[in-house]
Design a protein that fits this description.
single chain, alpha+beta, Spore Coat Polysaccharide Biosynthesis Protein SpsA, Chain A, 30% helix
Length: 507
């Protein structure tokens, strides 16, 4: 019986899969078996898989597309190993990865899973330049925490762990309920939340996993509009395990819930719902909180308990549903204080991490304008990152971005599309970056901006920002600056005197 089962999920990565399999064959730790599950690839992936004749490799091909979670059920049926390593068909491992991880888990029985630091690579296998800043730049750069701290991080900041870097005790898939269907966009985050309810985890500092980012938003986790639409629905299912925490655990995850512990007792599901409703970063989490509260009120025994403990019942609940405005109906009539939004400002020494950030709540005016001021008092800052909101898409226009009174608006970088002076984002966290020429101290940051999810509103009402120059030329310059050298194409000829006609005028 092998000590480690390597589960390799395959779908349409014929260009990379041979290198991925070879990186397992090259491991210095050799007591492993590999199960490859090809999810009915339409390219030559299956043919390339079948070329490998190593007796430790077993390959299964689904007759139709069945989703990535089917592979985990196949692993459960076929494998008997003590540990499981998860691998994707476009990623790579360093030769010593399994050896280091197995040794760690064997010497730390209290730890359920061990991860590694990550080297983000491009399609050619080269490490991406340090100055590239997007969704993947610092996603997996983080520090070790207790399982309670991890649950707090997952709630406020989302995923920060790399799935293909994990080595986990295989029995935990059953014990922690990690076999899930229906989660396409965030199955790894869903697993880590369920795992950390009972298990400690650890991240090794060595970059033993090479995570490949594909061009043209081809990764499953890419921020396309379709993926973001699905992501926001999935959050309601992913975060449900928080409502199964006991009160002692909940207080360790969210210290602010200690106020819900009374002399008569406590109701942890109510306390968790308050956190989700009042501090949840997306409407999905607030909707989940209202659903839980609805269920609690419709259980007679629990409803009586909520009334005794917190004086909470039907009148309070219907008042909250009136204010929630989950579906953003009639925003122009809503009290601005009820429109809960938040931005997160990060500062960087070497990396952007949650420990170097400040969360800033704000209210939007009727036309989408808002102002933020943040004091960070940080030494040796070489970059700032502004996660403008937690919406799945947004149109934004920066009016002013100042650091200690100095204006930097024109130096902000982002990966948005550009339309008539408006930045149009389709990613989970619309994001701006400011990179200083050399490290400096930053005390106070001031932001004025417009923000909306209605592009037509942006183009019609933010009329002070109609462009002065040739919009097509400016847009081309931005595209050309961001395009990798190997993908350059000749610029099409354009009449220099032609300018786009915009249906609004500047103030």
């Amino acid at each position: 019986m092998a000590s480690v089962v390597v589960l390799l999920t395959s779908y349409n990565h014929g260009k990379f899969i041979e290198a991925s399999i070879q990186s397992v064959l090259d491991q210095t730790f050799t007591d492993w078996e590999m199960i490859i599950v090809d999810d009915c690839s339409e390219d030559d992936s299956w043919e390339k898989i079948c070329r490998f004749q190593d007796k430790r490799i077993r390959a299964v091909r689904n007759p139709v597309r069945m989703g990535p979670e089917r592979a985990f059920r196949v692993m459960d049926e076929l494998a008997t190993a003590e540990f499981a390593a998860i691998f994707h068909s476009d990623d790579l491992w360093r030769p010593e990865k399994l050896a280091v991880q197995v040794e760690y888990l064997r010497s730390h029985p209290e730890t359920g899973a061990v991860f590694t630091a990550v080297d983000v690579i491009d399609e050619t296998g080269e490490s991406r330049p340090a100055d590239v800043q997007d969704t993947y730049s610092n996603c997996f750069t983080t520090e070790n925490r207790t399982r309670y701290e991890w649950l707090n991080t997952f709630f406020y900041h989302g995923n920060a762990l790399c799935h293909p870097s994990v080595l986990i005790r295989r029995r935990l898939y059953r014990e922690c309920g990690l076999f899930l269907d229906g989660i396409a966009q965030g199955p790894d985050l869903c697993k880590w939340i369920r795992l950390c309810r009972t298990q400690e985890i650890h991240i090794l500092p060595e970059k033993l996993t090479r995570y490949r980012v594909l061009s043209c938003e081809a990764n499953t986790s890419a921020g396309t509009p379709e993926n973001q639409n699905r992501s926001y629905l999935e959050l309601m299912f992913i975060y449900r395990p928080y409502f199964s925490l006991g009160m002692d655990d909940l207080v360790r995850v969210f210290p602010q819930t200690e106020k819900y512990v009374t002399q008569q007792g406590a109701e942890p599901r109510f306390a968790a719902a308050r956190v989700f409703l009042e501090e949840g970063s997306t409407d999905s989490l607030r909707l989940l909180a209202l659903e839980v509260l609805f269920d609690l009120l419709n259980d007679p025994e629990t409803a009586a308990r909520l009334q005794t403990l917190y004086g909470y019942g039907f009148p309070q609940y219907v008042e909250e549903t009136k204010r929630a405005n989950i579906f953003h109906l009639f925003d122009h009539l809503a009290d601005a204080s009820l429109m809960r939004n938040q931005a997160v400002l990060y500062w960087r020494g070497n990396t952007f991490v949650p420990e170097r950030s400040v969360t800033l709540p704000y209210c939007l005016s009727a036309d989408g304008r808002f102002t933020l001021d943040a004091r960070i008092d940080a030494e040796q800052v070489d970059a700032l990152r502004l996660d403008l909101c937690q919406w799945h898409s947004a149109a934004a226009k920066i009016i002013s971005f100042q650091c200690d009174g100095q204006e930097y608006r024109d130096r902000l970088e982002n990966n948005a599309q550009w339309s008539g002076g408006v930045d149009v984002f389709t990613c989970l966290r619309p994001q701006y970056g400011l990179f200083f020429d050399e490290p400096r101290r930053v005390g106070v940051v001031h932001l004025e901006a417009y923000l909306t999810q209605n592009l037509q509103l942006a183009l019609e009402q933010w009329n002070a920002f109609a462009p002065d120059g040739d919009v097509d030329a400016i847009h081309w310059q931005r595209e050309e600056r961001d395009r990798p050298q190997e993908n350059e194409r000749p610029r099409p000829e354009a009449a220099p005197e032609k300018k786009r006609k915009w249906p609004w005028q500047k103030n």
